[in-house]
Amino acid sequence: ALRRAAGAAELLLLVNGRVDVAAAEIYDGVHLGWRSIAPRAARELLGPGKCIGLSIHELAEAADPALLGPC
Question: In the prediction, which pLDDT does 59 show?
Answer without folding.
Answer: 82
